[in-house]
Amino acid sequence: MLCSRLLLLILVFTPILVLAHTDISETIKALTTRIETNPTADLYYQRATEFRALQQKVHAIEDLESALKIEPHNRHALVALVQLYETNKRAKALISRYQKFAENKEENFEAHYLLASYNAKLGLIELASSQCDTLHLLRPNEDPALDLFHAGLLLKLQRPNKAATILKKSLNRTESIVVRNNWIDAALTAGQTKAVLPLIEKELSSSRFRSSWLIRRARASLILKRKEAAQADLREALVEIAPRINPERPDFTLISDRGLIHALMGNKTRAKNDLETLKKSGFSPNAYRLLSSALAEQ
Fold this sequence. Notes:
Elements: H1 2-11, H2 21-37, H3 41-53, H4 57-70, H5 75-85, H6 89-101, H7 105-121, H8 125-138, H9 145-156, H10 160-174, H11 177-189, H12 193-206, H13 211-223, H14 227-241, H15 252-265, H16 268-281, H17 289-297
Helix pairs in contact: 1-7, 2-3, 3-4, 4-5, 5-6, 6-7, 7-8, 8-9, 9-10, 10-11, 12-13, 13-14, 13-15, 14-15, 15-16, 15-17
């Protein structure tokens, strides 16, 4: 689906760990041979994708630019190039080009989505959020990517009630587990414990891994001034997480949860250490927003 592709390209693109370097290099060689014989936009796009996998950004950009010289309206190459240029003015020019040639509802939506994401990367959060209001009217399908993106912007603007409202409507429409979990987190940030505690308790009674739900219940307990209950849940969550973190190849989601536990328990130094690890890893800042916010509040 269109929004899912945008979510991957725009919101959570992080460096890829290459496990088959030789295979990718061989693919690049094969594509190079074909390009030398008969260059096409699609071949350049394919090779750019392989260069991205090797984190060779300069080569990827060169190939995508070559693809657009052959086919100026190639959507795939254009979207990928906007992503790689990030906040560069060239990205804005490419988005403007897309807006001019967009012919249908999905293309129009995608072009405006790219612009909102570009402005968000520039730190123009209010403008990006306003553009999301327009995007909701243009929505081409039921995919929740826009709702998640918009809610994230609203949380940065410290409007958790509106973020929770958007996510609750999205949940009613899509029944997405990802949306549900994000709604619960936003609702807790807004102090809406009554709405989410029954769901948290239900998950705690059935989940194999309970740490993320223990953290959520602890957050609710802190809102309700039940400090001892919160501390007990946080200690239990920390015990569960510890053996699940591989020092050699850590799961950064678990690092984020551990950092949040430390922050909520008042262990500021340990929480900051985990935050620094996450920042250096290239992990999406959206994935550790709660940790960043918890430390900012202390």
